[in-house]
User: Fold this.
Amino acid sequence: MAAMESGSNSGGNSSNSSCPTVNVSSVTGSSGAWTKKGTQAYNLAKKIFAEGKASAKFNNIQAAIEVGNTITEGAQWGLPDTAEGHFGHDPKTNGVASGVTPIPSNSSYKVGGGGIFQITPFTNYAPIRSQKWLDTGGQLNFLLKEKAPAAATFKSKYKNDIPSGTEYFMNNIEVAGDTSSLSGRQSNAQKAYQMFSSISGSNGASDAMDAADSGADAQANACGGGGTDADATGNFDKKDWVYPIKAKAGIRYGQTDSGFNVGDQSFSGHRDTYPNQHDGFDFGTAKYSNPIRAAHSGTVIMAGTSPFALGQYNSYMVINGGGIYQIYQEFGSDGSGINVKKGQQVKSGQTIGQYASGSYHMHFGLTTSKSVLYHGSFSHVGLKDPITFLEQVKAKK
Assistant:
């Protein structure tokens, strides 16, 4: 595990000047050993290797050393957010981003570790449920910043020596609690070098991370820079909007179980430990009914499962149109309830999906921030209150 000094800064308080590369795509694959191509653990190891080169500017040997250390720690399960004491492949029961609390395995620690390095205590990097846990490049950059002198030595001195470099990384950057695992780390690093060096040339990083569309746009937006495809100036199309779901007889659009546009279903609702910062409106099945409709004409840019943790109901669609991103989520599981494909052009009011079996609401959001599309939001920055917005543009019912 990567043990942090008590005076370490929390990753949640880092400034934009040190903003890490953002790559929060979900890691999928079959079960099995990390050395078997196509497994979840293999895909994560390959992703870590590519990000080490792209983000930290490691050479192949140094990137392999990083893999050798992480695959001995949290990455061996194929999860970027492994919670200590909950080791397994299912993110719902083993992932910090899904709300699982790490359990310390060492009596000298009161708080457990998390992530590919098992950063201990996990609170030094990010809180429970934070989508930062899915950003493996961010975890690496956090560690390199915390151990800056050692990181500089590693990058300058250990370019060609896997055994010595692995030991240095383990003792001085990761600060592993169990040094008896050194031989295993060295062996894993050598395997990573043999497996990934040949496929991580000029196209290696993009090949390993092509599951996410975030790339530079997500990094720019997460760090407060760069633009988006949506119009952040507020110059939205004022015509051709429709409500994304049908209201049942006698129901006013915006009505929740608690009244009109109030309560947890509303834009000002409670979310986890963040009061009054719900990032959309939940159209519940008790008051609204199928089908799900395109709120404005545009292009489907995402259709499938959410790139960040949403729990069981993770069906997810995004339409870029009308000068803003339209987000539809939580209406089904594993892509169920979706009637459109990525790249498809849709018209206002066109049926794009439906509540899937077991779903109890459809979350609808409006944002100008591409970053929000890839890891949600625990604030209202770059977001619009959907009900207020649809009323202002006189959306059709």
In short: The two ends are 55 Å apart (CA to CA). The chain is about 25% helix and 15% strand.
